[in-house]
Design goal:
Structural class: alpha+beta
Number of domains: 1
Strand content: 35-45%
Order of helices and strands: EEEHEEEH
Radius of gyration: 14 Å
Shape: globular
Number of strands: 6
Distance between the termini: 12 Å
Helix content: 10-25%
Largest sheet: 6 strands, antiparallel
Length: 121
C-alpha cells in the first residue's frame, strides 16, 4: 500500500460511534461522506474490560482527543455534521483534517509517540 498515492477530499461526518465493539474493545469510528463515497476513520483500541490487554488505551484516547482538537469541536456529540478533509490512501482513510486550516491528525502520527521503535511510516 505504500506505493499508492494519497488523495485529499472534502467530506462531512455523517455518523459517529464511540463504544464497545463486538469483540470487546472500546473504540471509535467516524463515517465520512464525500465525492469519493463513504469511508470510516477509526477502529483503534481505546481499552478493554480485561485489564491485561489495556496497554493500548492511551493511544486510542489520545487519538480521540487529537481528532476533537483538530476539527475544533468541543465534544464527541458535535462531530456529526462537521465538515472536514480526509486523506485516502488506497481504500483507507488514513488522516482526518480541519476543513479550512492545514491541521491533520492520524493514527501513525499518534502511534509514534507510544511506539517509537515500532512505527517507521
Amino acid at each position: 500500500m505504500s506505493d499508492q498515492p494519497e488523495e485529499i477530499y472534502n467530506a462531512k461526518i455523517i455518523k459517529t460511534m464511540l463504544g464497545y465493539e463486538d469483540h470487546g474493545i472500546l473504540s471509535f469510528y467516524l463515517t465520512v461522506n464525500g465525492s469519493f463515497g463513504e469511508c470510516s476513520f477509526g477502529g483503534w483500541n481505546m481499552g478493554s474490560e480485561d485489564a491485561h490487554v489495556d496497554d493500548q488505551s492511551g493511544f486510542g484516547s489520545v487519538l480521540l482527543g487529537r481528532v476533537l482538537k483538530c476539527l475544533d469541536v468541543p465534544e464527541w456529540e458535535a462531530l456529526r455534521g462537521t465538515s472536514c478533509r480526509i486523506k485516502i490512501k488506497g481504500r483507507r482513510c488514513v488522516d482526518i483534517g480541519h476543513f479550512i486550516e492545514d491541521n491533520w491528525v492520524g493514527p501513525v502520527e499518534v502511534a509514534k509517540r507510544f511506539y517509537p521503535d515500532a512505527i517507521t511510516g
